[in-house]
Specification:
By secondary structure, the protein is an alpha/beta fold. The protein contains eight helices and ten strands. The chain has an eight-stranded mixed sheet, sandwiched between helices.
């Protein structure tokens, strides 16, 4: 079911100022290179700290908490829905979190905006499972997306995934393996594991409260560790 458009959405987005960056070629924040528009990440944050990205940030609970816990990084959170990203940006502003920015747009276009080798880690938290087989290529762990992420990540960079959906997790394990990624810290029941430092997202709490297990993995390119 489509989310109802928020009241005064455009005014709220405008009030977030430069906290939200738009995937728009007319946006002055982009420079052009080889026919693509690239973000100047250091300029956006005003620093050269390493960058961590979350794709599908929802209302921003995870990325805001992560940014507060570890201020030695800059955090770029991607979300395609204006209706949702406005809540995340307002949360960061209200909590005076200065090392996070939000990028509105679809993950499939990220290689037009994120410079190669500029991201330390990518988080995929409770992505849409797209259960129909015909929609498999829309899943954020499909091999096409993994190739895109590989280009954005620095050598040795990692992808961390969490989901409540067993079918998506099984699909992800196969895609990572067949695309030359190695796995570590894999858990079939995160909340009953010994993995520390977990930040509970909005969806995660809802699923966990229903008694559903949370699946988790960390992936890295095997060739980067040889």
């Amino acid at each position: 079911m489509r989310m109802r458009r928020k009241n005064h959405l455009e005014e709220r987005l405008a009030a977030c100022g430069d906290m939200i960056i738009y995937m728009d070629r007319d946006n002055r924040d982009f420079s052009y290179k080889d026919g693509k528009s690239m973000l100047d990440i250091n300029e956006i944050f005003g620093s050269e700290k390493p960058v961590i990205m979350e794709i599908g940030c929802g209302k921003g609970q995870f990325i805001c908490e992560l940014a507060k816990r570890d201020p030695e990084y800059n955090y770029l959170a991607v979300e395609k829905s204006s209706n949702v990203i406005v809540d995340a940006a307002e949360k960061a502003i209200a909590e005076e979190i200065r090392n996070v920015r939000f990028l509105r747009g679809g993950a499939e276009y990220l290689d037009n905006y994120i410079p190669a080798g500029s991201v330390e880690r990518i988080y995929l938290n409770f992505s849409c499972p797209f259960p129909k087989k015909s929609y498999a290529s829309h899943r954020l762990t499909h091999r096409n997306f993994l190739k895109l992420y590989e280009g954005m990540l620095k050598k040795g960079g990692e992808i961390h995934q969490k989901t409540d959906n067993m079918q998506l997790f099984e699909f992800s394990l196969g895609e990572f393996s067949q695309s030359g990624w190695a796995l570590k810290n894999v858990s079939l029941d995160l909340h009953n594991s010994d993995i520390e430092g977990n930040i509970v997202t909005e969806y995660e709490k809802r699923f966990s409260d229903q008694g559903l297990p949370i699946y988790r993995l960390e992936a890295y390119k095997l060739c980067d560790r040889l």
